[in-house]
Amino acid sequence: MADDGDGRLRTEGSSDGGLGSGGAGEPPAGTAAAVVGGEMLLNVGLLALALLAAYRLYLRWGTRSGPGGEARQSQAAALPRMKRRDFSLEQLREFDGARNPRILLAVNGKVFDVTKGSKFYGPEGPYGIFAGRDASRGLATFCLDKDALRDEYDDLSDLNAVQMESVREWEMQFKEKYDYVGRLLKPGEEPSEYTDEEDTKDHTKQE
């Protein structure tokens, strides 16, 4: 506090000419906090918009399986659990729910069997574009169109830290909900040899 000459007390950094604790020319201490708070509100707002868009897609497409979709779901439910194996991008594309009733997709280099979620990842589902593909970029950027897909191996090196954290979070969610069936191979990488014992042990661990 300081006396302003006419008997009134004012706080340092007030609008009548006082200086903030940082000295002349510096903004009041609350300004930085306001900027940070504004950025946080913007991030929260963007996340809310993304979630709203996803929810609208769910409302529009999530329950639209149609007669053909119901048949595919029944067929998918009868499929045995897939044995562990690794996939190239070309091999992964076969499992798109159309050419093959089993639906696989990759997230952060891991391949998951999402067949039981065919109403979301099947041909008529809201995320059907990711079936048989590497979904990492689309999930990281909330992009549900062809811009999120790469025909060549995508190392995700151009994604920022927030987007990469989002990819890792999606990977954890898929691990909790769906069967992990193997790795997405990089160009020139050889597939691993999985024994029946390893396969059974890992499936038991997931359950």
TrEMBL record:
Segments of this protein annotated with the region Disordered: 1-30, 186-207
Biased composition (Acidic residues): 190-199
Transmembrane segment boundaries: 40-58
Keyword Membrane: yes
Gene3D superfamilies per UniProt: Cytochrome b5-like heme/steroid binding domain
A single cellular component GO annotation: endoplasmic reticulum
Domain Cytochrome b5 heme-binding span(s) in chain numbering: 87-185
Biased composition (Basic and acidic residues): 1-13
Lineage: Eukaryota, Metazoa, Chordata, Craniata, Vertebrata
This protein's encoding gene: Pgrmc2
Annotated protein name in UniProt: PGRC2 protein
PANTHER family the UniProt entry points to: MEMBRANE-ASSOCIATED PROGESTERONE RECEPTOR COMPONENT 2, MEMBRANE-ASSOCIATED PROGESTERONE RECEPTOR COMPONENT-RELATED
Name of a matching Pfam family: Cyt-b5
Keywords carried by this UniProt record: Membrane, Transmembrane, Transmembrane helix
Family, per entry: Belongs to the cytochrome b5 family. MAPR subfamily.
rRNA-binding is among the record's keywords: no
Ranges annotated as biased composition (Gly residues): 15-25
The organism of origin for this protein: Tricholaema leucomelas (pied barbet)
